[in-house]
């Protein structure tokens, strides 16, 4: 990793480098994605089956595209590590308990003049959850995407995930989906899965919102179908920023930086510190870890491309840099982490203290691990219950309640030259 003195020039260069990882900068794939979406929109199952055979090397039919109860039963039986079932259940409890605190209720206020105002909170009817698959399995992502929808009260949760070449879904993924409460699971991945969820096919129902991470084709497909359905966000590569001073344990810091770098070569790991001694020790620890970690090739490329150790003169400069970068994950390892936490405005999730490492949030603590990336933590939030509800305003006025304000409304409408608006009020008092 490069040790760099942070100033305005280096900060600007780093921010520009990080932004290059955004899915918005991969326009060369957009035409391909658009063609896939239009084909699925126009030809339904036929197009989905063709793309599944082309990309996933599996032949699907209307009879085999949906996961059966028997396949779910087999997944429990075929799970290599049976202990995972109980681990998934314990994680499910933590995630459910956390998200239950996010629920909001409908409310109605009756005023003295007889007017009634309120807000009706309703869960969306059908949510589509995309889960990456194929060679990898992400049961944690299954839990994080489905459980907030369950807490919100979504009627139907429809999951899509790509199968292997034998047409099977990884057992841990199916177990997690069943435990979390998925209503339907379909064996389809990529942009074709997003299109199927957005527009519906003969086998796959159209949903109201699509959530879940995926590769660049999935990200661009979600972007393209937005407006026909809602989406959670356009997720970019993973990232972590560790804010540390001389009290931090360099071995812990190094381990946490590498926990993100192993995701892929586009992942970003950044240390911001006031201590050159810590910076040098962290760099040394990283070299030691690289000799024993299984994904060291990916980690090395990630660190070479988007790994930085940034030296700052004061912690105030470090806090300012962290707020400007707005990292997906932010770890604080300082003498007074809670005080610094209060000064952080922009981060997807904040991990406070040396025993709150980022994987704790990925798997078990309870808060959602679907977080804003590429600086979007400045205006986006983690996935949560709010993503699966909608709010409807309620208004009820009697003639007696409307009378004192009718002239204000008429004058407002007249000022905007909307005479039909004004007339709608006038006629009630003629």
Automatic annotation (TrEMBL):
Zn(2+) binds at residues 260, 263, 362, 421. The keyword Transmembrane helix does not apply. Keywords: Amino-acid biosynthesis, Histidine biosynthesis, Metal-binding, NAD, Oxidoreductase, Zinc. Its cofactor is Zn(2+). InterPro entries: Ald_DH/histidinol_DH, Histidinol_DH_CS, Histidinol_DH_monofunct, Hstdl_DH. The active site is at 328 (proton acceptor), 329 (proton acceptor). PROSITE patterns: HISOL_DEHYDROGENASE (PS00611). It holds the Pfam family Histidinol_dh. It comes from the Bacteria. Its EC number is 1.1.1.23. GO terms for molecular function: histidinol dehydrogenase activity; NAD binding; zinc ion binding. Pathway: Amino-acid biosynthesis; L-histidine biosynthesis; L-histidine from 5-phospho-alpha-D-ribose 1-diphosphate: step 9/9. It catalyses: L-histidinol + 2 NAD(+) + H2O = L-histidine + 2 NADH + 3 H(+). One of its GO terms (cellular component) is cytosol. Gene3D superfamilies: 1.20.5.1300, Nitrogenase molybdenum iron protein domain. Substrate binds at residues 238, 260, 263, 329, 362, 416, 421. The keyword Repeat does not apply. NAD(+) binds at residues 130, 192, 215. One of its GO terms (biological process) is L-histidine biosynthetic process. Binds 1 zinc ion per subunit. Belongs to the histidinol dehydrogenase family. HAMAP family: HisD (MF_01024). Catalyzes the sequential NAD-dependent oxidations of L-histidinol to L-histidinaldehyde and then to L-histidine. This is Histidinol dehydrogenase. It comes from Parasporobacterium paucivorans DSM 15970.
């Amino acid at each position: 990793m490069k040790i760099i003195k942070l100033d305005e020039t280096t900060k600007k260069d780093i921010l520009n480098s990080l932004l290059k990882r955004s899915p918005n900068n991969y326009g060369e794939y957009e035409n391909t994605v658009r063609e896939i979406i239009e084909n699925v929109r126009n030809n339904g199952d036929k197009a989905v089956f063709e793309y599944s055979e082309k990309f996933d090397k599996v032949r699907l039919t209307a009879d085999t595209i949906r996961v059966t109860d028997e396949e779910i039963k087999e997944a429990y039986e075929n799970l290599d590590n049976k202990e995972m079932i109980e681990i998934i259940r314990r994680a499910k409890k933590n995630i459910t308990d956390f998200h239950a605190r996010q629920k909001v209720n409908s409310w109605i206020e009756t005023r003295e003049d007889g007017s009634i105002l309120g807000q009706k909170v309703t869960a969306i009817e059908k949510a589509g959850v995309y889960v990456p698959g194929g060679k990898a399995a992400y049961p944690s992502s299954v839990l994080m995407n489905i459980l907030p929808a369950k807490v919100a009260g979504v009627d139907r949760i429809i999951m899509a995930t790509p199968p292997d070449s034998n047409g099977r879904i990884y057992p841990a993924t199916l177990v997690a989906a069943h435990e979390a409460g998925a209503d339907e699971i379909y064996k389809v991945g990529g942009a074709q899965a997003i299109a199927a969820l957005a527009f519906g096919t003969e086998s796959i129902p159209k949903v109201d919102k699509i959530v879940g991470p995926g590769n660049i084709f999935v990200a661009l497909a979600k972007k393209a179908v937005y407006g026909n359905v809602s989406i959670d966000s356009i997720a970019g590569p993973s990232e972590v920023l560790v804010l540390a001073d001389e009290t931090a344990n360099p071995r812990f810091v190094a381990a946490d930086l590498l926990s993100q770098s192993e995701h892929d070569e586009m992942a970003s790991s950044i240390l911001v510190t006031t201590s050159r001694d810590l910076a040098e020790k962290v760099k040394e620890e990283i070299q030691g870890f690289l000799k024993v970690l299984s994904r060291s090739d990916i980690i090395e490329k990630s660190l070479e491309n988007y790994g930085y150790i940034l030296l700052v003169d004061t912690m105030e400069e470090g806090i300012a840099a962290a707020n400007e970068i707005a990292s997906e994950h932010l770890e604080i390892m300082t003498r007074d982490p809670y005080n610094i936490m209060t000064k952080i405005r922009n981060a997807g999730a904040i991990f406070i203290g040396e025993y709150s490492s980022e994987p704790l949030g990925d798997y078990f603590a309870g808060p959602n691990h679907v977080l804003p990336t590429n600086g979007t933590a400045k205006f986006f939030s983690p996935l949560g219950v709010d993503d699966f509800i909608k709010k409807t305003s309620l208004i009820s006025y009697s003639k007696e309640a409307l009378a004192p304000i009718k002239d204000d409304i008429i004058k407002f409408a007249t000022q905007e030259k909307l005479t039909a608006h004004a007339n709608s009020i006038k006629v009630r008092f003629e």
